[in-house]
Write a structure and sequence with these properties.
Elements lengths: L1 H47 L3 E6 L4 E9 L15 E3 L3 E2 L5 E7 L2 E3 L3 E6 L8 E7 L4 E7 L6 E4 L15
Antiparallel strand pairs: 1-2, 1-7, 2-3, 2-4, 5-6, 5-8, 8-9, 9-10
């Protein structure tokens, strides 16, 4: 009977620890996956010397790469091609329990609809911040993409950088 009680207590402790660990890991996985797509998109823009985008679907809790190509090959030209002809990457969904809080770019903050971030052939990007949240646990994480360098900064909370104004350059 004592052995059964010890095994039962051990099982309970392990299950409580596992339940506490999984939510943080889901948020970490979301951050790693999104950052990997952002890095790959920047790398593609540089190596192909073309402009690429990342589209955030804030209502659908998903994101994807937008390429400068058309389906079947060739370059996308907005004057010639319809947007439905553009080659897109597959949608990637955020893990269960993880959502977009906001995406901020060019001094504007968006909490719904589609938002596009640009990566250019020189390695620069749209200055933007992506805030992910876990509403059930009150966890937030911000991925900040720097404009001039296209590099990343990470913040373990909500972080929205104000857009620069003329006074910042005096």
């Amino acid at each position: 009977m004592v052995v059964a009680a010890v095994i039962g207590m051990g099982t309970y402790i392990i299950s409580v620890s596992y339940d506490a660990f999984v939510p943080k890991e889901r948020l970490n996985t979301a951050v790693r996956s999104l950052t990997a797509l952002l890095r790959e998109t920047r790398s593609q823009a540089i190596s192909r010397s073309l402009e690429f985008f990342v589209e955030y679907d804030l209502d659908g809790e998903r994101y994807r790469r937008v390429t400068p190509f058309v389906l079947g090959g060739g370059r996308f030209d907005a004057e010639v091609n319809d947007d439905s002809e553009r080659a897109y990457g597959n949608w990637q969904r955020l893990p269960d329990g993880v959502e977009f809080e906001v995406v901020a770019t060019a001094g504007e903050t968006y909490d719904s609809g589609p938002v596009f971030a640009r990566f250019d052939p020189r390695g620069a990007a749209s200055d933007h911040q992506v805030v992910l949240k876990q509403p059930a646990y009150g966890n937030f994480f911000t991925i900040e993409i720097m404009a001039l360098t296209g590099t990343f900064k990470f913040h373990r909370d909500v972080f929205i950088r104000e857009a620069p104004d003329d006074g910042d350059f005096r």
